[in-house]
């Protein structure tokens, strides 16, 4: 018997069955508030300064394109303004519309604006209502928070909203983009701790410095389907 025939005889012919994971509805929440228009400085190189919002926007665009390579997930886009929020795109599976809308996102204020705190209450209630409209799905919120000196205000949720956020098919992932090293910056540690209140044991929280590669890596680390992740113990 030839070597090739021997290999063929010993090879298993059992077909491999791939389990398809449920499709997701993903709400991108982009913090458009910035301390300055250009808050990422590439000096001493010749690259022009740019805003962290522009990097976040590009990272979300890459995320959406990669996420829908083999699935038909839906995406929505919500902006955090200095004191409120604005849903600019309802859920759609049309990736071209998602990419076009992300490309149109601009910084809301060109000049520094004093905002000592941001009340998440109205946003969380609105997300709860959105979730109620899409009960039979994996519902994800992926939020990039981009403020160094603005404390998140997160009050106890009402029972209905709390139950929604505790669902094992609901995920609220946060990416905190801060200017300084969080290990040395007490304000950054406080903000990060507040944002962690939004995360259930199934959700992830990520802290990155205001650097292009760090921001992109932080957002793309959330690409895997949430059913593949382990419970968060942090």
What does this molecule look like?
There is one protein chain. The protein is α/β, with parallel strands linked by helices and 234 residues long. It has a single domain, classed as Rossmann fold (3-Layer(aba) Sandwich). It is 31% helix and 22% strand. The chain contains 7 helices and 8 strands, in the order αβαββαβαββαβαβα. A 6-stranded mixed sheet has the order 3-2-1-5-7-8, sandwiched between helices. A two-stranded parallel sheet has the order 4-6. β2 and β3 form a beta hairpin. α2 runs antiparallel to α3. The longest helix is centred in the first third of the chain and has 16 residues. It is globular and about 55 Å long. The N and C termini lie far apart (58 Å).
Main features:
nucleus; alpha/beta; 234 residues; DNA damage; two-stranded parallel sheet; DNA repair; 7 helices; Rossmann fold; BRISC and BRCA1-A complex member 1
CATH level-3 fold name:
Rossmann fold
Q: What is the helix fraction of residues, given as a range?
A: 25-40%
Mean pLDDT across every amino acid position: 84
The CATH fourth-level homologous superfamily: von Willebrand factor, type A domain
Biggest sheet, spatial arrangement of strands: 3-2-1-5-7-8
Number of helices: 7
According to DSSP, the number of beta strands is 8
């Amino acid at each position: 018997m030839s070597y090739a025939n021997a290999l063929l005889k010993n090879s298993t012919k059992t077909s491999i069955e791939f389990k398809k994971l449920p499709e997701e509805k993903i709400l991108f929440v982009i913090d458009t508030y910035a301390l300055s228009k250009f808050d990422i400085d590439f000096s001493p190189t010749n690259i022009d300064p740019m805003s962290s919002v522009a990097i976040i926007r590009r990272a979300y665009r890459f995320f959406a394109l990669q996420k829908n390579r083999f699935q038909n997930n839906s995406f929505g886009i919500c902006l955090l303004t200095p004191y409120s929020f604005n849903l600019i795109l309802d859920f759609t599976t049309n990736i071209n519309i998602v990419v076009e809308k992300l490309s149109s996102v601009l910084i809301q204020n060109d000049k520094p604006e004093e905002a000592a705190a941001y009340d998440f209450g109205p946003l969380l209630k609105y997300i709860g209502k959105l979730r109620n409209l899409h009960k039979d799905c994996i519902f994800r919120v992926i939020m990039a928070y981009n403020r160094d000196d603005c404390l998140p205000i997160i009050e106890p949720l009402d029972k209905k909203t709390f139950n929604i956020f505790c669902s094992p098919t609901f995920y609220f992932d946060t990416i905190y983009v801060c200017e300084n090293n969080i290990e040395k910056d007490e304000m950054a540690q406080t903000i990060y701790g507040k944002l962690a209140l939004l995360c259930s044991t199934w959700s992830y929280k990520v802290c990155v410095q205001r650097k292009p590669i760090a921001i992109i890596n932080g957002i793309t680390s959330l690409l895997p389907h949430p059913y593949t992740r382990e419970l968060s113990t942090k």
